[in-house]
Amino acid sequence: MVDDRIPKRLEGKGSTMLICWVLGNGCLFSWNSMLTIVDYYVYLFPKYHSSRVLTLVYQPFALTTLAILSYYEAEMNTRKRNLIGYSLFFLSSLAVLVLDLATSGKGGLGVFIGICAISGAFGIADASVQGGMVGDLSYMHPDFMQSFFAGLAASGLLTSALRLITKAAFENSKDGLRKGATSEGSKTVSDDLAAGGIEASPAHVDQFGKQLERKGNKQLLMENIDYALDIFLIYVLTLSIFPGFLSEDTGSHSLGAWYALVLIAMYNVWDLIGRYIPLIKLLKLESRKLLMISCIARLALVPAFYFTAKYGDQGWMIFLTSFLGLSNGYLTVCVITAAPKGYKGPEQNALGNLLVLCLIAGLFSGVVLDWLWLIGKGWPFPDENLNLMFGVECSALGQRKPKTKNHRILVFCLIYRNLHAEAVRIVL
């Protein structure tokens, strides 16, 4: 006689989805907190392009760590890996508060380097947690994966809401910008503690308790190269615009100091909404060809943002930012939940790690490309001394500006020679 009862491991789906949501929230809550107080860092470090530099520091650490962890994935204890990651999130979040209190909210190069070091620690923690969680959830119910990624987006929405509230509460008080940023940071610490306390991970064994064999990473990647490219393209585009371009290059509007915060908040709201749309089966995109076409078509947002920033008003910019978030969340969940189907548990785990590796590679590439928006705005020589040196070397050539390729090469060689000589003089 067939037993019609629901297996125990399928019971409690609702509570499991809630746990996955909390774990996803804790995964990026601290990093999103750092992004949403970017107005404070712009005030504290006006010359360092903090919104761009912090993401540029974060991504190499995340990418390198995840590449190593993906290579040794089969030999690692995922539960310990995730717990270490959440613990690092907690300690790094605490370090942000300690650094601000220890320096009494003062700026300077030393403090900025400390913030960058904490950003790198966030990157290591993210690679450890996100790769491990996606790997484990890949061979469970697709709704668990969707819930985890919804939690990632919800962290951005919650931090944006907290930042708007704290900015409004402390705007007119003495040292209000710092108080608002610090108040939000304290909430980040408690959120990471909550996430780290409920993490768990099952073992990859079959019904007889034997270790399951799986395909190699290279074979899995080649069989899913379109999904890997999809997730890469999604985040190359997103990070080439968010948060750097939205924070620094959208001009001045009637919202004033609130403008960048509103744009980031709108992105986070629609990113979260986009991650819930695939729960409606009729609206979920599963065709591999259509997913690829959608990800490529999304690149049209680059010229759209450029011309809107140059000629459009804030309403159009808010609309584009909302669409950027909506498409980012929707396509991410569609790709991540579709890819692991048809594989064994360990293969799904490995594929989940590989897709997150492609995701972080896309993030890193997007962060690097984001600097291209600064061309024509004094970059790559934002510092007055370097601009002066550039002008001196040009005048040495008898020209105001180097007009040909050879002249430009000579100018840069002369600048490099002077910088090298100055460095040697200081060392000696």
From TrEMBL:
Its main location: membrane. It is found in: Membrane. It is a multi-pass membrane protein. Keywords: Membrane, Transmembrane, Transmembrane helix, Transport. Coiled coil: none annotated. The chain crosses the membrane at residues 16-41, 53-72, 109-125, 145-165, 227-246, 258-278, 290-309, 315-339, 351-374. InterPro entries: Eqnu_transpt, MFS_trans_sf. It comes from the Eukaryota. GO terms for molecular function: nucleoside transmembrane transporter activity. GO terms for cellular component: plasma membrane. Belongs to the SLC29A/ENT transporter (TC 2.A.57) family. PANTHER family: EQUILIBRATIVE NUCLEOSIDE TRANSPORTER, EQUILIBRATIVE NUCLEOTIDE TRANSPORTER 2. This is Equilibrative nucleotide transporter 3-like.
